[in-house]
């Protein structure tokens, strides 16, 4: 497993070692011990989620103000541009974002620790997106920041033809959002 920090060092790109031949391929998609060595701490995952979306669907930027979720995300069909925004007020990278293309083809995973907003846009015909969370989803604490907030300046690869949920269309601006201390 190859682990590469992004420009926000706590957000990690994880690439598995792939063993392939004319029959196909094999790789270890998750190993608790190796993962904890990579992130430098114990992480217990409590929930796995699976979504399917078509081209132009943008989900996010989501986070939970209490019971924050760390997320280990990957794509098993298609491709997405995945984004993490640092919402930790005391962090030197507060308000900064990182984005990575993750796909079934490149088999990359992204570790987004607690304290970050998360979102993605589907860049392929459709994508199936899997993610593990370190805390249970709780609608009472869920929040969303506008995907296109100029204060964040996220360089999404698509800006036209996007499809968002009503919740995401009504998301707050970064400046008025409830964030972590």
Automatic annotation (TrEMBL):
It catalyses: dTDP-4-dehydro-6-deoxy-alpha-D-glucose = dTDP-4-dehydro-beta-L-rhamnose. InterPro entries: RmlC-like, RmlC-like_jellyroll, RmlC_Cupin_sf. One of its GO terms (cellular component) is cytosol. Its EC number is 5.1.3.13. GO terms for biological process: dTDP-rhamnose biosynthetic process; polysaccharide biosynthetic process. SUPFAM superfamilies: RmlC-like cupins. GO terms for molecular function: dTDP-4-dehydrorhamnose 3,5-epimerase activity. The active site is at 62 (proton acceptor), 131 (proton donor). Belongs to the dTDP-4-dehydrorhamnose 3,5-epimerase family. Catalyzes the epimerization of the C3' and C5'positions of dTDP-6-deoxy-D-xylo-4-hexulose, forming dTDP-6-deoxy-L-lyxo-4-hexulose. Homodimer. This is dTDP-4-dehydrorhamnose 3,5-epimerase. The lineage of its organism: Bacteria, Pseudomonadati, Pseudomonadota, Betaproteobacteria, Burkholderiales.
């Amino acid at each position: 497993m190859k682990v590469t920090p992004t420009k926000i060092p706590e957000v990690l790109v994880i690439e598995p070692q792939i063993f392939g031949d004319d029959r196909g391929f094999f790789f270890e998609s998750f190993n608790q011990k190796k993962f904890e060595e990579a992130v430098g701490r114990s992480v217990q995952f409590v929930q796995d989620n699976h979504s399917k979306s078509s081209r132009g669907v943008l989900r996010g930027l989501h986070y939970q103000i209490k019971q924050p979720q760390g997320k280990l995300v990957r794509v098993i069909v298609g491709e997405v541009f995945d984004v993490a925004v640092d919402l930790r007020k005391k962090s030197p990278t507060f308000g900064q974002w990182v984005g990575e293309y993750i796909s079934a083809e490149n088999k990359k995973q992204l570790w987004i620790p607690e304290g970050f907003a998360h979102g993605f846009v589907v860049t392929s015909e459709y994508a199936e997106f899997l993610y593990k969370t370190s805390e249970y989803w709780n609608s009472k604490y869920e929040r969303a920041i506008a995907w296109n907030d100029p204060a964040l300046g996220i360089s999404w690869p698509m800006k036209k033809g996007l499809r968002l949920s009503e919740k995401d269309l009504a998301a707050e601006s970064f400046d008025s959002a409830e964030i972590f201390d």
